[in-house]
Design goal:
InterPro entries: AAA+_ATPase, ABC_transporter-like_ATP-bd, P-loop_NTPase. It comes from Polyangium spumosum. This is ATP-binding cassette domain-containing protein. The protein has 246 residues and is an alpha/beta fold. The protein is built from 9 helices and 10 strands. A hairpin with a 2-residue loop joins strand 4 and strand 5. The structure holds adenosine-5'-triphosphate. Adenosine-5'-triphosphate (ATP) binds next to helix 1.
Amino acid sequence: MISFRHLAKSFGSKKVIEDVSFDVRDGEVFFIIGQSGVGKSVMIKHLVGLLYPDAGEIWLDGEEISRFDEEQMYPVRMKCAMVFQHSTLFDSMTCAENVALPLRKHKGLKPKEALAEARKRLDQVHMREFADRFPPELGDGMRKRVAIARALTLDPRYVLFDEPTTSLDPVSARRVDKLIRELSDTLGVTSIVVSHDLVSIFSIADRIVMLYKGFVRLLGTPEDFKASSDEIIQQFIHGRAEGPIE
Ligand SMILES: Nc1ncnc2c1ncn2[C@@H]1O[C@H](COP(=O)(O)OP(=O)(O)OP(=O)(O)O)[C@@H](O)[C@H]1O
């Protein structure tokens, strides 16, 4: 389980996160939503030591990790894989070679074994038939699925997705949604998804936290969000231009 407890984070004089607490439960698909610049990515960067809080604590599986040094962070990064918005695959390597890379580097597999394992991993994301293709030959949605396969190679318990469907066409976006849901349902992976995509949010989230002006505005299920009488929540989830959101 992941717990953020009274997290606070400023950059210079700009207070981005003032006091945010929430738990992410094992095996769930958990969304972090809110306006641009509200600090969604800032929250997940704290989990892998890319940022450190000014105040508050982050707990991961019973350990307080918020003040871990680089060496202590290493096992945390093995447990929490991050899938960035723009897939960071090497264009000059095939999809299988890209996925094999962490298997060779971190699991010590020989090149041939790593490639065989990479093909299995590509199967998990329905990309096995593209194993020998190069990333530039594929569409954005397919590249995203290969990046997800690579993130799964070290069997992380947690996968952090930063806007996984942004800039994808609607069909590719729904395929990525389906895959994120499958990871939880079949592998028991816990997914934390930063997203603006209302279709994703309402089709695959178990629970959602909405951040607003440095605080949690609402934490609940998609049904809780739909039923909320808070005008700010309603404006956001319906994507309305008019309303109380500044
Ligand atoms: N390393 C940093 N140094 C300075 N400011 C930062 C840093 N990281 C984030 N910020 C600032 O913190 C704020 C929140 O950034 P963050 O990337 O978390 O936004 P977000 O909610 O994910 O927005 P978006 O939906 O646009 O991606 C922004 O104003 C950003 O400029």
